[in-house]
Amino acid sequence: MHIQIDEIAKEFGTTTALHPVSLSIPSGALVALLGPSGSGKTTLLRILGGLEFPTSGRVLFNGQDATGMTVQDRRAGFVFQSYALFRHMTVFENIAYGLRARPRASRPPKAEIERRVLKLLDLIQLPQIATRYPTQLSGGQRQRVALARALAIEPRMLLLDEPFGALDAKVRKELRQGLRDIHDETGLTSVFVTHDQDEAMALADLVVVMSMGRIEQIGKPADIRARPATDFVRDFIAA
Amino acid sequence: MSDATHAFRRATEESPLARWALIAVAVGGLLLLVGAPLVAVFAEALSRGWAAAVESLASRDAQAAIRLTLLITAIAVPLNAVFGIAAAWFITKFDFRGKAFLITLIDLPFSVSPVVAGLCIVLLFGANSAIGGWLVASGYPIVFAVPGIVLATVFVTFPFVARELIPVMIEQGRAEEEAALTLGASGWRVFRTVTLPNIRWALLYGTLLCTARAMGEFGAVAVVSGKIRGQTATMPITIEMFYNEYLSVAAFSMAALLTGFALLTLLLKTALELRHADALSATRRH
Which of A237, A236, A232, A214 is closest to A19 using CA atoms? Predict the structure, then answer.
């Protein structure tokens, strides 16, 4: 799905989180929103997911205005920073949640839900953990379960907030490839937020460098490295 | 220098002497301040044997008081559970001006004397007020009747549920609810399947405390009820009446029964915790 961000601005009371920003994300791309904390990258991601609403500007999905669309109607697979797994539910119940929450008419039968959950557990290469609780999983496993839960709703796009932020360096490298594989397999337009320029450069097709609520540069990793548009970008990617 | 058999004391561990002294103070205080009165109540109630105690509880006034207290509790506790969840939800899931003020307001019943609370209700809904006069004329008196006692009890026990829930809900944040929303769940479904299961133990604990307090409330109820024997006298009020009339067995039997109700709620909580120990340990955050 093609995502168009048209002059989106966001204010929280008197603080401005986003100055008007515009961005076009081609269908099927894997995009990184890269910037330090307070750069507005998470706010932009949450606006795409329908968890925040912009003060002004428009969001378009496949050319259709989706600015006021509810979070439920957007069908955005969202992976939260600390994963936000439902702690009182097993892994199976976590992944099945979105399918079970559908209105009766479009809810798959029980056997079909089970088949899909098991298939997703295979996809994230954790077929054995269906009956465990989130607290009984390692950080890397939790992240993959959160990804499977987001994919279960057959999302139109994938939005990830610092998906590797809470992991140690070794697991991080492994899961990077895991996300790339899943993206390539599903072909979903995916946007992830990160403050780690290595991660953004290694993983994304398109990198959006942000600072202080503004977009500093949009480009392919190699282009940004070769031709940083501003002093901020030069400093940030050199760090 | 350090041989293998030497046992090191952990940094946070006290010397044996200090440990025993602390344990002695805690246990001694508990026995003196909680255990002794508890034993005294039951001993006094049974001072003339089981038969006399049971007989005193079977009297018409005693029966009316027990029924009234259970009725008031059955109305006030569910009301406060709903109010408490609503208030905690509002405070923890939304950002707005005056949040600190609202939290203070919820605590107000803890700091205001129950007698003052009772007087306020009399002032607002008594026969001499505009609302009260109209209500009495239409046949729905509030003061000196059951609605007034319910109001007073709800006011006094209002903070218990909300106070238990607010810290738990703040600690848990909004992420799980947001996750459920992005997965397509409606607001009501999110509440039922995510919020409520996450707060169920705090809710249970708050509700039990609220129940114990609702059954025992004296000051506010004493003012609004008018202490009409057999009609508006709750268990604590009746205990005082019996006691003032030197009906010591009757007074202490009812006191023992009231204590029994409170102990029952605590037992219930412990039993539930034991039964769900697995789920508790698996889902509690480290």
Answer: A214
Of B176, B198, B282, the CB nearest to A135: B282
Q: Which two tokens stand for residue A13?
A: 């009371």
Distance from the Cα of A27 to chain B's closest Cα (Å) equals 20
Backbone angles phi, psi at B13, to 5 degrees: -95, 140
User: Which pair of tokens denotes residue B116?
Assistant: 């003052």
* Residue A160: CA count within 13 A, CB half-sphere: 33
Q: What percent of chain B has pLDDT over 90?
A: 53
Average pLDDT over residues A58-84: 93
Which residues does A16 contact at the CB level (< 8 Å), separation at least 6?
Answer: A9, A10, A213
Scanning A120-159 for CB atoms below 8 A from B yields: 133, 135-136, 149-150, 152-153
Own/partner pairs, B281-284, CB within 8 angstroms, 24+ separation: B282/A133, B282/A135, B282/A136, B283/A87, B283/A88, B283/A133, B283/A135, B284/A135
Cα B221 from Cα B234, distance rounded (Å)? 8
Contact state of A101 with B284 under an 8 Å Cβ cutoff: no
- pLDDT, tens digit, 9 for 90 and up, residues B149-186: 999 999 999 999 999 899 889 888 889 999 999 999 99
CA B15 – CA B279 distance, rounded (Å) = 37
Q: Name the residue among A77, A87, A98 with its Cβ closest to that of B283.
A: A87
Comparing CA positions, the residue from B271, B147, B161, B262 lying closest to residue B210 is B161
Q: Is the pLDDT of residue B138 over 90?
A: no
What pLDDT digit, counting tens, does each position of A82-116 carry?
A: 899 999 999 999 999 999 999 988 899 999 999 99
Q: Which of B175, B180, B186 sits opposite A97 (nearest CB)?
A: B180
A27: which 2 tokens? 């269908």
Q: How far apart are CA B286 and CA A186, in angstroms?
A: 35
A200 min Cα distance to partner chain B (Å): 24
**A84–B176: do the CB atoms touch at under 8 Å?**
yes
Averaged confidence pLDDT in chain A = 93
Query: Looking at the partner chain, which of A84, A97, A133 has a beta carbon nearest the beta carbon of B178?
Result: A84
The separation between CA B204 and the C-alpha centre of its own chain, rounded to angstroms, equals 11
Alpha-carbon gap, residue B62 to B56, rounded angstroms:
7
Residue A167 DSSP symbol: S
Q: Minimal CA–CA distance to B158: which of B92, B120, B125, B112?
A: B112
Nearest residue of chain A to residue B97 (CA atoms): A13
CA distance B211 to chain A (A): 27
Contact B184 A153 (CB under 8 A): yes
- CB A53 within 8 Å of CB A68: yes
